[in-house]
Amino acid sequence: METALQQMKELVKTLNKAAKAYYQEDREIMDNREYDALYDQLEKLEKETGITLADSPTVNVGYEAVDVLPKETHESPMLSLDKTKDRETLRQFVGNHKTLLSWKMDGLTIVLTYENGELQKAVTRGNGTVGEVITNNARVFRNIPLKIAYQGRLVLRGEAVITYSEFERINKSIEDVEARYKNPRNLCSGSVRQLNNQITAERNVRFYAFALVSASGTDMHNSREYQMEWLKDQGFEVVEYRVVTADNLDNAMDYFAATIEKNDFPSDGLVALYDDIAYGDSLGSTAKFPRNAFAFKWADEIRETTLRSIEWSPSRTGLINPIAVFDPVELEGTTVSRASVHNVSILKELELGIGDTIQVYKANMIIPQIAENLTRSSNLPIPDICPACGQEAKVIRENEVEALYCMNPECAAKKIKAFTLFVSRDAMNIDGLSEATLEKFIARGFIHNFGDIFEIGRYRKEIIEMEGFGQKSFDNLMESLEKAKETTLAKVIYSLGIANIGLSNAKVICRHFDNDLEAIRKADLEEVSAIDGIGPVIARNLVEYFQKAENNQKLDQLMQHLHIQKDVLQKEQIFTGMNFVITGSLEHFSNRSEAKNLIESLGGKVTGSVTGKTTYLINNDTASNSSKNKKARELGVPILSEEDFIKLTQAEGQTE
Questions:
Q1: Any catalytic annotation for residue 20?
Q2: Residue 653: what pLDDT?
Q3: In the chain, N or C: fewer CB atoms in 10 Å?
Q4: CA 387 to CA 315: how far, in whole Å?
Q5: Cα–Cα distance between 624 and 75 in angstroms, integer?
Q6: Within 10 Å of residue 511's Cβ, how many Cβ atoms?
Q7: What is the rounded distance in angstroms from the CA atom of residue 501 to the CA atom of residue 494?
């Protein structure tokens, strides 16, 4: 079984790589015959094993959106684990008992239920008693089996995680530094709990099983290790573990300690679980913890240093963040001299003062933090003026947290950060306006509002005489501004810098209102909150932004310079719910990507393989006996030539 599973994983990887090259990059890394042979081999293995992996090209997992994530009570409560940072305490727990020692993964715990071999339900841990149902999202996890060989009722637990490399990829794609995710766990939590599972799919969430709760009618030989190996045979990736007793505990822990530095997934410790199921269950639990398991938390590498100053860093939202500056220390292999204190509440709680001896560490071995203040002189005054503009700064308490804000709406720091977002690639995409250049333009009074950027030409003489500028730089900037005038409404909404509204949220909002700016401006809280994927916080921020006359005046000025393109989402979605497969050479389209883009713009989806869910196969050689044509005929899927396909779009009253 393990060999077959490994073959399936390799085939899925190879076929998906080929499909991506073929459909997204317009290049072939294998011919159709080779692809079809591998595809048939995968189908055969899936039938033999009864297992179908989530990312298999043989299944077509549709994207779905829900209005809300329903709550559900767990069949058995999920308790927390007692924990220690001391190896000897863990050794005493293990004793002479055969114990499984595994990673304590740092993501979101999920409970999966399978019935008759198919994934029926997925629920988050929640508070341990009640969780949220996220079945749609679990179906698009990268490595979850949608079908398994076991036909009874199976309930298991595991951890949904996002790898460090995926975390970095996603953060790099977010132009606004302040909007980036703090750590992989936060990103994973938000990704797993999306109302639209297409967003979940794009985040490449992975699932690692760590406990079997029940599998009716199956003898598990009273062994947790047997359960883990059985889950492997069903197609699940299980958390890596070592079998230990007190005698060989050190070797295993040394292995984990050395390996964690190389791991791509986040882990904040280890879990020890007795192998003997009956014995472990007989121990029962305390009010908080089960007695058959124990967690080991890594002892953070902590260094003492001296606090030298607190820098107050303004942001585009007006929040002024305190940043501790201390004598450099080596932590987890890098030199560290700064750490965010986050807000005034934490600064007060630590009783920080200049010259204090503080202990610093890296949270999750990544983010520098202050662990403790040994001196606690508490001699730090909270500034009452903004360091950027010199105007009033005020401590505001919200949700039991105190934070410092600049009260000046004309603050230069706010403007610089706001303008930096405005000109970024995902917003207005204006080349030639770095943060340093924006700072100079603001200081000279050239720009006050977003619309002023498109009127910068009036200062041509002054700009070409500025250091680092000249006629060529000015001309390039003017050319970039002309290009930027052609944009979409979603990019405009995102570029305004409304709190918590990223480009994807802006697209959802614009789609809901049919790209009608006036409708967006006049929308009330109830209407915006009702949009799929838009929560109450985002809705409130959007509505409050457009309730301010000043913001609307500035937007009016900006819109005078822009030409809003007709978004493809405005086209009639005549292919909604339809799935297309494209094969063979094309004549009317320059490449497959062009055909794919047209289909998607009309609401359809393009997949790599013909299945029972395929609506049409597009192939100019409609009479050929290729494997895709054969499969289409077997399943009753119509085969269209390009001309047939184009007629189909025109027959529905939609031309490109």
A1: no
A2: 42
A3: C
A4: 11
A5: 54
A6: 16
A7: 6
Largest CA-CA distance found in the chain, in angstroms, rounded: 84
Do 404 and 393 form a contact (C-beta atoms < 8 A)? yes
The DSSP call for residue 383 is P
Strands 108-115 and 118-124, by their bridges, are antiparallel
Q: pLDDT (tens digit, 9 = 90+) per residue, 252-264?
A: 999 998 898 788 8
Q: Among all chains, which residue has been given the structure tokens 């390996």?
A: 259
Question: Choosing from 20, 104, 483, 630, which is the catalytic residue?
Answer: 104
| Rounded Cα gap, residues 123 and 361, in angstroms | 34
Q: Give the residue from 377, 368, 413, 375 showing the smallest Cα distance to 393.
A: 413
444 with 463: CB under 8 angstroms? no
Of 195, 181, 244, the C-alpha closest to 529 is: 195
CB 135 within 8 A of CB 259: no
Q: Model confidence over 126-156: pLDDT tens digits? A: 878 888 999 999 999 989 999 999 999 999 9
Predicted confidence (pLDDT) per residue in 304-313, tens digit: 999 999 999 8
Quote the CA–CA distance of 653 and 647 in Å, as a whole number.
Answer: 10
Distance between CA 88 and CA 443 in Å, rounded?
Answer: 61
Contact 146, 234 (CB under 8 A): no
How far does CA 580 lie from the centroid of its chain? 27
Separation between Cα atoms, residue 34 and residue 245, nearest integer Å: 50
DSSP string, 112-146: EEEETTEEEEEEE-TTSSEEEB-HHHHTTSTT-EE
Q: Which of these, 89, 105, 86, lies nearest to 271 by C-alpha position?
A: 105
CA distance linking residue 418 with residue 495, whole number of Å: 8
How would you classify residue 429: left for phi > 0, otherwise alpha for psi between -120 and 50, otherwise beta? left
What is the rounded CA–CA span in Å between residue 167 and residue 406?
31
Instruction: Evaluate if residue 589 carries a pLDDT over 80.
Output: no
Q: What distance in Å separates the CA atoms of residue 60 and residue 63, rounded to the nearest whole number?
A: 10
Long-range contacts from 289-294, C-beta under 8 angstroms, 24+ separation: 289/79, 289/80, 289/81, 289/82, 290/79, 290/81, 293/81, 294/81, 294/82, 294/83, 294/84, 294/90, 294/93
Q: Could you read off the pLDDT of 39-76 as tens digits, one per residue?
A: 888 988 988 899 988 888 887 655 666 667 888 888 88
For residues 233 and 209, give the distance between their C-alpha atoms in angstroms, rounded to a whole number: 12
Higher-confidence residue: 344 or 600? Answer: 344
Q: Report the C-alpha gap between 320 and 383 in whole angstroms.
A: 10
Cβ–Cβ < 8 Å for 176, 422? no
User: Is the distance from CB of 227 to CB of 220 less than 8 angstroms?
Assistant: yes
Nearest to 329 by CA among 296, 297, 364, 300: 300
Our CA dihedral for 188, 193, 198, 199, rounded to 10 degrees, sits at -50
Q: Tokens 């595809």 correspond to what residue?
A: 39
Strand partners, 305: 358
